Amino acid sequence: MAKRFLIPLSATLMLLAWTGLAAARIPLPDITELVDKDGPAVVNISTTKTIKAQENMRDLFEQFHKRGGPMDDFFDQFEKFFGPQGRGGKPHKQRSMGSGFVISADGYIVTNNHVIDNADEVKVQFRNNEKPLSAKIVGRDQETDLALLKIEGRTNLPFLEFGDSSKVKVGAWVLAIGNPFGLENTVTLGIVSAKGRIIGAGPFDNFIQTDASINPGNSGGPLIDLDGKVVGINTAIVASGQGIGFAIPSDMARDVIAQLREGKSVRRGWIGVTIQDIDDNTAKALGMENTKGALVTSVLEGQPAAKAGVKTGDVITSVSGEKVDDSNQLLRRVATLKPGESAEMTLLRKGQPMTVSVTLGERDAKKLAQQGAPGDENGEDDAAPDKAATVIGLAVRSVTAKEAKALGMDKARGVLITEVGDGTEAEQSDVRPGDVVLEVNQRAVNTPDEFKKVVAEDGKQKGVVMLQIKRQRQTIFRTVPLAESK
């Protein structure tokens, strides 16, 4: 008797589905004409920079001892085996490669700042052109990792136009053209995987993520939509992953490049606050219905926000009519405005909405990178600190005058956390020994008793306590959920 084979129903349905897809013949985009049109405007960029020789070991140690010391025999043997070339060695040339694209017929070229950073010489190679051309650096912006180059004496170059990255949808087809691993004019096709990615590359992270293959050497090349417009500048990859690349949105790049093309440095608005995001517990402590907005952790004295009346603990929810969802969006929004402009900011202060007008200052990246010098700890004598009391797993006591001065405070205020209980909600909320709590649920506390009272009353009512903390001269907020009473 012939054997009969039974196919499970699920397998049958799967087979029918695949058959249906094959019959439908869902087409992939044909990009051949697009590559022919846009490819000639994409260039390879090679740079040469001089690397100064590093001090050798003898040079380093000679800073700390004189000849005739016990290290002489060691260095004599070192030079015997390795030679004296390391000592005061000659500078050497280092070469690197990247990508770029022409944005005007007269030779302006966009690339990444990190492609040409510290370069002594920049060469641009066009497709099907054997001779590389010299390019000068017109301007660059470290904070967005963008740079503008110029080739002189050309007036008829092929070029690409910027598109509108705000209209690009997740799932849309895009192609990348560049110079991965030195393989010039390589084309890869993929989709937009996500938008608004924050990867820690800089203060204005807002990357387009794509699975179009991007590799070392693609940096500075264009991410192009099916209309042939540049919607992103390929910038970064996840080295340990596949199909995870990131591009600077064209909407961000367009304004930066325009300023560089005018021969100007990039100017950005500045309000003079430090900010952080709002999580669910913090929103609960603030009496907010959602986590939208940027929480002001400190207001810099004499800066635009302070002059406008913004206070620590305020939540900024919009700037000039544009909603602010988080701290990164606030930073980007303010940076798009020009110094001297007036901006209307909507705030929530202790649950109440209000509007203030801020005249923007100018962001100075160099000053922002500098850390405040530690204060002189040799101040007035302190009275003996009070005994620590334990609240919500935290041992706290009043702050002494010397401790306040070390933290850059004008006077002793707040309570010092001397111990954080293992496994407590406070520990899990990143509250640390050495933190100074200035406010609990936006109420000032200067003694353990005041701390206890706010926790027992307002904290118990809301189920959370939001701590305004001074940590290493920085002001931050940490929110601790309270255990439910049983």
UniProtKB/TrEMBL annotation:
Please list the residues that bind substrate.
114, 145, 217-219, 235-239
What UniProt keywords are attached to this protein's entry? Hydrolase, Periplasm, Protease, Repeat, Serine protease, Signal, Stress response
Per the database record, which ranges form the PDZ domain? 257-333, 392-445
Catalysis performed (reactions): Acts on substrates that are at least partially unfolded. The cleavage site P1 residue is normally between a pair of hydrophobic residues, such as Val-|-Val
The subcellular localization recorded is: Periplasm
Main localization of the protein described in the UniProt heading? periplasm
Q: What are the GO cellular component annotations?
A: periplasmic space
Q: CDD domains given for it?
A: cpPDZ1_DegP-like
Name of the top EC class for this enzyme: hydrolase
What Gene3D superfamilies does its record include? Answer: 2.30.42.10, 2.40.10.120
Q: Which residues, if any, are the signal sequence?
A: 1-24
Q: Where are the active-site residues found?
A: 114 (charge relay system), 145 (charge relay system), 219 (charge relay system)
Q: Which domain of life is it from?
A: Bacteria
- GO BP annotations, alphabetical order: proteolysis
Q: Which family does it belong to?
A: Belongs to the peptidase S1C family.
Q: Any idea what this protein is called?
A: Probable periplasmic serine endoprotease DegP-like
Q: Which organism is it from?
A: Solidesulfovibrio carbinoliphilus subsp. oakridgensis
